[in-house]
């Protein structure tokens, strides 16, 4: 892949065009995003996210930056964990997703310690060393320059701060792989077509998972960005993984 080209699912596109194409996908699916997540994972995504937050090491009073936070799943859990003395910054590059997240925060009565800001993870508008924890859940694979995003995550962390990435990864149980592929490429797009009336967007989402770096590659990317003690834990046989690293 040349420097000016990247992947949009299985398509090769100009790198400058990917953000626009991804934006169109999420603008299209924003209204049905939470419903589709529940249907696609049979609700298991909620368990993954709760585990992600429960094992994050977040403490009362912490300042948390949630990148690509979408409809607010992680931000809501983090806001409850940091308490009134803490702060959560819910960010997303996509305005439709961020609006859905803001509405959901209000619906669930989460106010006072969460701010919503439209942010590109590749260029975070925060000073160096200002947050205790950076999270990105199911968003890194949609970023055009993942290395730039990881470097930005490192930059804004305080010394001793932690970055956490929850993302679809490579299935580690061989008998599960054909079933997972069948579901991803045959069932998932059809559900998207019926519920969200957008089969192509959900085909892209399935393809984007396959193009995302595997567990060891992403670990090496974290190390290259400067993170110490980089590592990962597989969940559900590697369907998803939690990667982490610390700023020293």
Question: Brief description of this entry?
Answer:
By secondary structure, the chain is an alpha/beta fold. The protein is 45% helix and 23% strand. The two termini are 32 Å apart.
Describe what this molecule looks like in 3D.
The chain is an alpha/beta fold and 248 residues long. It has helices spanning 15-29, 33-41, 44-54, 73-82, 95-107, 146-156, 176-195, 199-211, 215-224, and strands spanning 5-8, 11-14, 63-67, 87-92, 114-118, 131-137, 157-168, 228-235, 240-246. Helix 7 packs antiparallel against helix 8. The mean pLDDT is 96. It has one domain (5-246): Vaccinia Virus protein VP39 (Rossmann fold, 3-Layer(aba) Sandwich). Strand 1 (5-8) and strand 2 form a beta hairpin. The chain starts with a strand and ends with a strand.
CATH class: Alpha Beta
Which fold name fills CATH's third level, the topology? Rossmann fold
How many discrete structural domains?
Answer: 1
Query: Which structural class do you get from the secondary structure elements?
Result: alpha/beta
Query: What is the alpha-carbon Rg in Å?
Result: 17 Å
Order of helices and strands: EEHHHEHEHEEHEHHHEE
- DSSP strand content: 15-25%
Overall pLDDT metric: 96
**DSSP summary, beta strand count:** 9
């Amino acid at each position: 892949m040349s420097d000016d080209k990247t992947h949009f699912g299985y398509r090769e596109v100009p790198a400058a065009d990917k953000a626009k194409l991804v934006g169109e996908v999420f603008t299209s699916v924003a209204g049905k995003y939470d419903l589709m997540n529940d249907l696609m994972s049979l609700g298991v995504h909620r368990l993954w996210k709760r585990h992600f937050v429960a094992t994050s090491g977040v403490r009362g009073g912490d300042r948390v930056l949630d990148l690509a936070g979408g409809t607010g799943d992680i931000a809501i859990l983090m806001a409850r964990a940091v308490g009134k003395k803490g702060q959560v910054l819910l960010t997303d590059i996509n305005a439709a997703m961020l609006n859905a997240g803001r509405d959901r925060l209000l619906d669930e009565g989460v106010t006072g310690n969460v701010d919503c800001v439209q942010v590109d993870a590749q260029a975070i508008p925060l000073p160096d060393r200002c947050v205790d924890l950076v999270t990105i859940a199911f968003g890194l694979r949609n970023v055009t320059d993942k290395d730039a995003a990881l470097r930005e995550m490192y930059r804004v962390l305080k010394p001793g701060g932690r970055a956490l990435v929850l993302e679809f990864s490579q299935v580690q149980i061989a008998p599960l792989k054909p079933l997972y592929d069948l579901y991803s490429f045959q069932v998932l797009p059809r559900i998207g077509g019926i519920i969200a009336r957008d089969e192509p967007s959900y085909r892209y989402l399935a393809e984007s998972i396959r193009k995302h770096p595997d567990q060891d590659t992403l670990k090496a990317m974290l190390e290259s960005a400067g993170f110490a003690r980089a590592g990962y834990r597989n969940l559900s046989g590697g369907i998803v993984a939690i990667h982490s690293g610390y700023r020293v």
